[in-house]
């Protein structure tokens, strides 16, 4: 199993590139950049590629509804060249609250939209469509998927899935079996909030205050109910080094091919957590 870093989009540009650099310096395999409404993760990955050698750079995820697949394919292939073909494109339909509430677009039939979008995107990335970028290798494509239909699409049309909030048990009994039913060798990339800390309850309370609203997004609500949890903050792995290391081992045993550390807590706790991530990566 590979260990990487999940870089949120709430920090400045130099901070995000610095986090990717720190991931490489600690021996991690990858750095993935997120999109909500601020930084463009594909552009950030390209800039990080110029500054940080050696590691995979990915998006987790790019929202599909606002971007035409031909345009995204051209951008992704450009970034593939710029990063020496170290780029992985994570995409997903996002949530109705963003697509309709912010962009003013219809969120009708997201599964059908995703299937059609991935079909067009993969055609363009392969060079069989309108987009041709010399020197580019088609980047791997990951799909954000939690429900049965989306997991099937991830297995059929993508190279795997990138998940958030999923526990090891959910990966073992729900995500891995459903994607494996239609594909072989699919990646299951689990982004997990982690904190090496002496105050786990306080860290969870802090995250609940910042991100608790996401608990009511329908796909997340279904996942949390499946896991017997009320709030996304309950999915945080927090405690001493042994606690966090045991959780990483549990994700590997459950079938995750990658764990992305999403660092939470104060600066000292984040530094301790990143240090542990590097130690775990070097031991694998």
Question: How would you describe this protein?
Answer:
Helix 2 (41-51) runs parallel beside helix 3, helix 5 runs parallel beside helix 6 and helix 7 (168-180) runs parallel beside helix 10. It contains eleven helices and ten strands. The protein is globular, with a radius of gyration of 18 Å. With 284 residues, the chain is an alpha/beta fold.
Number of domains: 1
- Following the backbone from N to C, one meets helices and strands in this order, namely EHEHEEHEHHEHEHEHHEHEH
Total beta-strand segments: 10
CATH H-tier superfamily: Luciferase-like domain
Low-pLDDT runs: none
The rounded distance between the terminal residues' Cα atoms is 7 Å
Proportion of strand residues? 15-25%
**What is the overall shape?**
globular
Q: Mean pLDDT, as a whole number?
A: 97
Order of strands in the sheet with most strands: 1-2-3-5-6-7-8-10
CATH architecture term:
Alpha-Beta Barrel
Highest-level CATH class: Alpha Beta
Total helical elements? 11
The largest sheet is:
8 strands, parallel, barrel
Helix content: 40-55%
Structural class: alpha/beta
**How big is the Rg?**
18 Å
CATH topology: TIM Barrel
InterPro entries: F420-G6PD/mer, Lucif-like_OxRdtase_MSMEG_4879, Luciferase-like_dom, Luciferase-like_sf
Keywords: Oxidoreductase
Protein name: Luciferase-like domain-containing protein
GO molecular function: oxidoreductase activity, acting on paired donors, with incorporation or reduction of molecular oxygen
């Amino acid at each position: 199993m590979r260990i990487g870093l999940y870089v949120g989009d709430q920090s400045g540009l130099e901070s995000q590139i610095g986090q990717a650099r720190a991931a490489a310096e600690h021996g991690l395999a990858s750095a993935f950049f997120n999109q909500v409404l601020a930084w463009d993760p594909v552009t950030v990955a390209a800039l990080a590629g110029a500054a940080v050698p050696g590691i995979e750079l990915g998006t987790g995820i790019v929202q599909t509804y606002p971007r035409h697949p031909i345009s995204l394919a051209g951008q992704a292939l450009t970034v593939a060249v710029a990063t020496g073909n170290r780029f992985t494109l994570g995409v997903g339909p996002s949530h109705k609250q963003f697509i309709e509430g912010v962009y003013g677009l219809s969120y009708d039939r997201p599964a059908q939209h995703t299937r059609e979008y991935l079909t067009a995107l993969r055609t363009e990335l392969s060079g069989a469509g309108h987009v041709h970028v010399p020197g580019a290798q088609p980047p791997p494509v990951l799909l954000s998927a939690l429900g049965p239909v989306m997991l099937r699409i991830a297995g059929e049309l993508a190279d795997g899935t990138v998940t958030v909030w999923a526990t090891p048990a959910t990966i073992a009994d729900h995500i891995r079996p459903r994607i494996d039913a239609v594909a072989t060798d699919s990646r299951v990339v689990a982004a997990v909030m982690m904190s090496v800390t002496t105050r786990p309850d306080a860290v969870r309370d802090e995250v609940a205050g910042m991100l608790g609203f996401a608990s009511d997004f329908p796909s997340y609500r279904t996942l949390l109910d499946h896991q017997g949890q009320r709030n996304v903050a309950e999915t945080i792995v927090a405690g001493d080094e042994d606690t966090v290391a045991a959780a990483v081992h549990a994700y590997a045993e459950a079938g995750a091919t990658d764990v992305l550390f999403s660092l939470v807590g104060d600066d000292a706790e984040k530094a301790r957590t990143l240090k542990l991530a590097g130690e775990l990566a070097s031991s694998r």
